[in-house]
Amino acid sequence: MKIIDLRSDTVTQPTPAMREAMMAAPLGDDVFGDDPTVNALQDKLAATLGFEAALFMPTGTQSNLCALMSHCQRGDEYIVGQMAHTYRWEGGGAAVLGSIQPQPLNHQPDGSLALADIESAIKPDDAHFARTRLLALENTIGGKVLPLSYLAAASHLARGRGLNVHLDGARLFNAAVAMGGDPYAQARTICSHFDSVSVCFSKGLGAPVGSVLCGSKAFIKAAHRWRKMAGGGMRQAGVLAGAALYALDHHVRRLADDHALAQTLAEGLQGLPGLTVEQPQTNIVFVDVAPERAQGLLDHLKSRGVLATGLYRLRFVTHLDVDAEGVQRAVAAIREYLS
Ligand SMILES: *Cc1c(COP(=O)(O)O)cnc(C)c1O
Predict the structure, then answer these.
(1) Is the shortest distance between the CB of 200 and ligand 1 below 6 Å?
(2) Which segments constitute the Aromatic amino acid beta-eliminating lyase/threonine aldolase domain (predicted)?
(3) 139 and 185 assigned to the same domain
(4) Do strands 211-215 and 53-57 pair parallel, antiparallel, or not at all (unpaired)?
(5) For residue 227, is it within any domain?
(6) 3-class secondary structure, 73
């Protein structure tokens, strides 16, 4: 029985063509700046997204950490969402390793942080307070796309108060594809509101490893130092960057297929007794079920070869390695449990 793994878009295997690109990638020692494939990836993503420079990172967590540590010094503060990866899901790294204080805010239903909440969280210049230095947003956030008008307003507010603005764009291209039109141009438009952006290649883009942090030359120089300190200076990293470069060229537009399948999944679950299905905007479907039934449902799905997670709510993520038949099997298994 083929396993339908809907736990995350991180579970994708590199395709045969991606593996070929990895095998064929010219390599060098990236700590010396000598790896042509890493350099090509960094140059290409920076140019695509409208930044001066970029830096290849082993993980999105390290990419975000280096970004936060480059924007903020010891005793500084960043404003961030309660459910943001850079706050909740990175082991407290900014505080532990960076001595940076998070100022978490509750999200609005659309995933945004209310401008009034941001405004009132910015501390005055007073010795009682940490120095508020940064606003960190995430897009997509919980699979939701933040509107461009919101990004513009939030960035305008933050910059007007002397803050920098960072985007955890782990799924930047999912947001760009969901907006319609040319996804590369849309991604660039999103990025125009930020001083730095971190993009994951190991999620829906299907690479086995890797994220890229983008920003100004001076910012990337600072991040490069932190990356070395964090143990992220990799050697013949082009074998990995080759996969990301391939994904950038070949796996961006196809994210639309994942979004369509998430839609199909949500439609298949709509109206089932005991389920509340959130209409997906991208590739993540959240489903609420009575807490006492959640584990039973997950166990049943597992017995039918369908994997999902349920840390807060049930979550089903579509990706490169899930097709329409897999989604139908997932829907059938959920229906079977509830009937
Ligand atoms: C996955 C993810 C990251 C980075 O995760 P790594 O597993 O460290 O690569 C960062 N932000 C968001 C929103 C993510 O989903």
Answers:
(1) yes
(2) 5-290
(3) yes
(4) antiparallel
(5) yes
(6) coil
pLDDT band per the 50, 70, 90 thresholds, residue 96: very high
In a domain, 9, yes or no: no
Dump pLDDT digits (tens) for 265-300: 999 999 899 899 999 999 999 999 998 889 999 999
CA of 211 relative to ligand 1 center, distance in Å: 9
- In terms of residue numbers, what domain contains 238? 14-250
Predicted TM-score (pTM) of the model is 0.97
Is 135 in the same domain as 264?
Answer: no
pLDDT band at 310 (very low <50, low <70, confident <90, very high): confident
- Residue 6 domain-assigned (yes or no): no
Q: How far is the CA of 273 from the centre of ligand 1 (A)?
A: 33
Any ligand 1 atom below 6 A from CB of 85 = yes
Q: How far is the CA of 252 from the centre of ligand 1 (A)?
A: 17
CA 200 to centroid of ligand 1, rounded, Å: 7
DSSP string covering 90-120, please? Answer: STTHHHHHH--EEEEEPPPTTS---HHHHHH
Q: In whole angstroms, what is the distance from residue 31 CA to residue 235 CA?
A: 6
The verdict on 62 and 106 lying in the same domain is: yes
